[in-house]
Amino acid sequence: MAQKFLYIVDHFEPFPRSEYGGLWNVIADNDEECFDLILEENAHPDEQYHINLRWNIEKATIFTLGEESGTSRVVEYFIT
Q1: How far apart are the first and last CA of the chain?
Q2: Residue 68 CA to chain centroid, in angstroms?
Q3: Measured distance CA(73)–CA(4) in Å, rounded
Q4: What pTM, to 2 d.p., does this model score?
Q5: What is the pLDDT of residues 28-65, one digit of tens each?
Q6: Which of 4, 10, 23, 69 has a 20 to 30 Å separation from 58 between CA atoms?
Q7: How far apart, in whole angstroms, are the C-alpha atoms of residue 71 and residue 20?
């Protein structure tokens, strides 16, 4: 079983979905999978936000999880 990581990603969401930003908690194998999972949950048509998302994932707080952490997924998100 692959090593999993918990990503805490601070990422701006554009109006009307959000006015200030959001916080995403994602279990993923790597940065690319984290990116894909957030886009699946919240696909924004403007690629400008994809670039920002990649940068925000790179600077995210990341915790190493045990091998029993389950499947990769968006655990929770909070958008203001």
Answers
A1: 35
A2: 20
A3: 11
A4: 0.82
A5: 999 999 999 998 887 666 666 677 888 999 999 999 99
A6: 69
A7: 30
